[in-house]
Amino acid sequence: MSHIIRMRRGIAVLVLILALAIGGLIGGLAAARIVSDETVPIFVASAQDRGVQRVSFENGFSPVVSAVADAVVNVSSSRVVRSESPFEPFFDEPLLRRFFGDRGRLRRETSLGSGVIVSPNGYILTNYHVVEGSGDVKVVLHNKREYRARIIGTDEMTDVAVLKVDATGLPVARLGDSNALAVGDFCLALGSPFGLGQSVTAGIISATGRSDIGIDTPGAYESFIQTDAAINPGNSGGPLVNVRGELIGINSAILSRSGGNVGIGFAVPINLARAAMDQIIQHGKVTRAYMGVLPQEVTPAIAEAFGLQQAGGVLVGNVEPNSPAARAGIQRGDILLSMNSKPITDFGQFRIDVGSMKPGSTVRFIVFRNGTQQQIDVTLGEMPSQPRPQPRPQPQQRDPLEGLSLRNLSPELAAQLGLPADTRGVAVTDVAEGSAAEDAGLQSGDIIVEVNRKPVSSAAEVGRAVRASGGKPVLLLIDRGGVTMYLTL
């Protein structure tokens, strides 16, 4: 196998020349694209130019690391939780408590994560889940100095938290522009994985705008940066930076079956995190605009079912009573094509765009309804504290009724399901694992209200309507816990 390893001298020289040329090009790009700091609020001061040298094959990323490392901190938080030991009921016996104390009752739980200093007077940005429910938070700086930190505010929807330590003159990370990222850009992830102390990993931006990655928070705003830079437990809350040392994201999650890095990590874009951070610092909380609809992705199957020539916009799966959308005349089944003259292309980004507006703002929509377009203006309200759950995307499948068990909805069954006695529709009593119905998103307890936009009241009607579709995608309107949404089989 020696012929694979060896290389002719001429080829080796050529490769060396190309490597040096590429290194110079990367350095030129790193030095040329500098984002202005003029838009940074005064309470989130930008770092002064640290003279980051050009990235090259000779010095690697060390100039970038030296420019940002001092602003990276270790965050440890603790909270007292009640044990869920199966023996807990027995500890209520006085005799056992005398000998064993209150074991199985209360215990202290510790969480380790990372953070990044964004203001010289002690504001630190980290993840919500790093400090969730914590009563005691400690921050350790790069120079080993320790501080007790106050939680200024949190935002579960973006997984952002802002801490404050009583210190001045701290090193800070410069804020970049996550909207300017491109797939293939170099990036570095910094933090304290597994509590080992500060570590750095390098990679590229693998994707942007990632959503529906399985975050458990209902209604969470997901528009993640995906990277193959190694992110592991303990990296949460730490910075993701570009080759100019600018903060472009807050490391938040990984996709892994083992619990360790497999090259798929996610970071909250800094533009999204900063919008939440600014409100937390100014007002102590995040206030978002509210429209009162359940937006769904318009798949090709849904576009065909509604008579739309091509997939685009967002489908209104539910309109909350007395919401801004309801008052403006938005209806279930409408497809919102554009917002303020800008085409709507992604339902996840649509939610972020609406939420980032100020309550009281008026938004102009172009709405597709019954084959025609019309203009509707909606005056946004303030988002309630408990957002409605979002539907998961559904792949299209063959054999629509495969693995689906239905039952006519009687008053007795409605009572068992906790529904009003006058509820109309057909109850889903079982969905077989791996079936087409499960893949479409149907769940036991769902109520099928319409099939292909026509009301149904019996399992037989559902069967006839599905067979009448002639193999085309079947559009279902379901009621799940009082919230309606569309699914396609």
Strand content: 25-35%
- On the 0-100 scale, what is the average pLDDT? 80
Low-pLDDT parts are 1-51, 85-106, 388-398
Distance between the termini: 55 Å
Question: Based on DSSP secondary structure assignment, what is the total number of beta strands?
Answer: 27
Please report the number of helical segments. Answer: 12
What topology, given as strand order, has the largest sheet?
1-2-3-6-5-4
CATH class of the largest domain: Mainly Beta
Task: Tell me roughly what share of residues is in helical segments.
Answer: 10-25%
CATH topology tier name of the largest domain: Thrombin, subunit H
Overall body shape: elongated
What is the structural class? alpha+beta
Number of domains: 3
Characterization of the model:
- The protein has helices at residues 2-5, 9-32, 62-68, 94-100, 128-131, 270-283, 300-306, 324-328, 347-355, 411-416, 436-440, 459-467; strands at 72-82, 106-117, 123-126, 136-140, 146-155, 160-164, 174-175, 186-191, 199-210, 224-227, 239-241, 246-254, 265-269, 289-290, 293-297, 314-319, 335-339, 342-343, 362-369, 372-379, 381-382, 404-408, 426-431, 447-451, 454-455, 475-480, 483-488.
- Strands 1-2-3-6-5-4 form a six-stranded antiparallel beta barrel. Strands 8-9-10-13-12-11 form a six-stranded antiparallel barrel.
- The protein has three domains: 33-286, Thrombin, subunit H, CATH 2.40.10.120; 289-382, Roll (Pdz3 Domain), CATH 2.30.42.10; 404-488, PDZ domain (Pdz3 Domain), CATH 2.30.42.
- The chain is elongated, with a radius of gyration of 27 Å.
- It is α+β, with helices and mostly antiparallel strands and 489 residues long.
- It is built from twelve helices and 27 strands.
- 21% of the residues lie in helices and 32% in strands.
